[in-house]
Every structure is written in structure tokens, then in C-alpha cells.
Specification:
By secondary structure, this protein is mainly β. It has one domain: Avidin-like (Lipocalin, Beta Barrel), CATH 2.40.128. It is about 10% helix and about 45% strand. It contains one helix and eight strands; from the N terminus they run H-E-E-E-E-E-E-E-E. Strands 1-2-3-4-5-6-7-8 form an eight-stranded antiparallel barrel. The chain is elongated. The chain starts with a helix and ends with a strand. The mean pLDDT is about 85.
């Protein structure tokens, strides 16, 4: 009986003094800023005869889910930036006015080859165009 009692006490001590197994932490892994892949200068090739031009995508410092698109639709470097909401691999540009009264809206999707494929609407005065564009990183 005495031996059994000693073995039991040794077993308890062994269990309490042994290091526990680390099954991981409950801390979520920080995937980084989802906007990062979109940031920078992009060469644009589009279908609406607006030519080839450069769009600069910058983070919106006032909203961590948004980006600013400078020269979107070739509106000109002095026009208002278009505002886009980043959701996973997409930028959503809700209907807004840029340039000289242009209304734009659309969606850009980041592709595996590092390009952004765009479908957007451009309204200038009474004239509306539905455009497609491919952005390639500069």
C-alpha cells in the first residue's frame, strides 16, 4: 500500500512539474493590410478610348478599408481622387463624381498574375460608357 501511495504521489508530481503541450495560441494571425497589394503606380490599358495612362493607388488615411485612385478613368492629375473600398481581392468604386463632373462607379479585381481587371461605368454629361481596363504594376 505504501508503494502504491508513493507511486501515486510521484505520478501527481510528474504531471504537475512536466511542461504542458503548446496547442497554439488563440491570437489571430495578422494577415497584414489587405490594401497593400493594390498600392502603387499602375499602367492602364482600357477599352473606352481614354488612352493608356497611369493611375496611382494610395491608402486612404481616414479609413483603413479604403484606397484613393488618382487619375481614375484618366480624369487628370488635378481632379478629385476616386474612392474605392477594398474587400478581399476587390476594389469597389461606388457611384461618385470626379474630374469635371464625371460620374464613375465600378469594380476592380486583383488577379493571380498581379494585374487588376476593371469593369466600370463612366458618365460625362449625357454620354455614358461601360468600360473595361487592365491595370499592370509599373
Amino acid at each position: 500500500m505504501r508503494l502504491l501511495k508513493r507511486l501515486f504521489i510521484l505520478g501527481i508530481l510528474f504531471l504537475t512539474l512536466s511542461p504542458a503541450c503548446d496547442l497554439g495560441t488563440d491570437d489571430p494571425v495578422d494577415p497584414g493590410d489587405p490594401r497593400d497589394k493594390f498600392l502603387g503606380d499602375w499602367k492602364v490599358n482600357e477599352s473606352c478610348n481614354r488612352g493608356n495612362y497611369i493611375v496611382t493607388i494610395k491608402p486612404d488615411d481616414s479609413n483603413s478599408s479604403q484606397v484613393l485612385l488618382e487619375n481614375f478613368a484618366n480624369a487628370g492629375p488635378d481632379s478629385d481622387d476616386a474612392v474605392g473600398l477594398v474587400v478581399s481581392n476587390s476594389i469597389i468604386v461606388s457611384s461618385q463624381t470626379i474630374g469635371e463632373g464625371w460620374t464613375v462607379s465600378g469594380n476592380g479585381e486583383y488577379k493571380q498574375d498581379g494585374t487588376i481587371s476593371w469593369n466600370y461605368s463612366l458618365v460625362i454629361g449625357a454620354f455614358q460608357e461601360d468600360c473595361t481596363a487592365v491595370y499592370s504594376k509599373q
